[in-house]
Write a structure and sequence with these properties.
By secondary structure, the chain is mainly beta. Strands 5-2-1-6 form a four-stranded antiparallel β-sheet. A two-stranded antiparallel sheet has the order 3-4.
Length: about 130
């Protein structure tokens, strides 16, 4: 079971039409740091597209949805931890998986610091994403 915890309105870069993403969050997890060995509480999150306008999508916050958020392997990249500024190397992302399905839906917000490709300007793009499609 996952819960809708937020909404984000974006503009389609090809059509200039607005669309709304729902942010989904999984249950509480305890994860052990590979660096320090300390445990910390976290949740898996991803975003999925919707057909809702922003007003309707906002009313969906707090709704539960069957399914789970699963870890997906991706090409390695460096990520800046927002709270600490620490740069860490990751090779995973998260996506929503409906119950009984092998299909994955969604994207995880990721600020790419370096992946041997030119970084997108945050001024132009406002955010960078790795889309997860299987």
């Amino acid at each position: 079971m996952v819960m809708v915890t937020g909404v984000i309105e974006k503009i389609n870069s090809k059509t200039n039409n607005p669309f709304v993403l729902l942010e989904l969050s999984g249950g509480l997890e305890l994860v052990q740091s590979k660096e320090t060995g300390n445990f910390y509480a976290t949740t898996r999150k991803c975003r999925i597209p919707s057909t809702f306008n922003l007003e309707v999508a906002t009313m969906m916050i707090g709704s539960s949805v069957e399914g789970s958020i699963v870890k997906v392997e991706v090409d390695p990249y460096e990520y800046v931890v927002p709270n600490t500024g620490e740069v860490v190397k990751l090779a995973h992302s998260y996506a929503y998986q409906p119950p009984g399905s092998m299909n994955l839906i969604g994207e995880t917000p990721i600020e790419v610091v370096s992946n041997n490709k030119p970084a997108l300007s945050k001024e132009k793009d406002k955010s960078s994403y790795i889309a997860v499609k299987v």
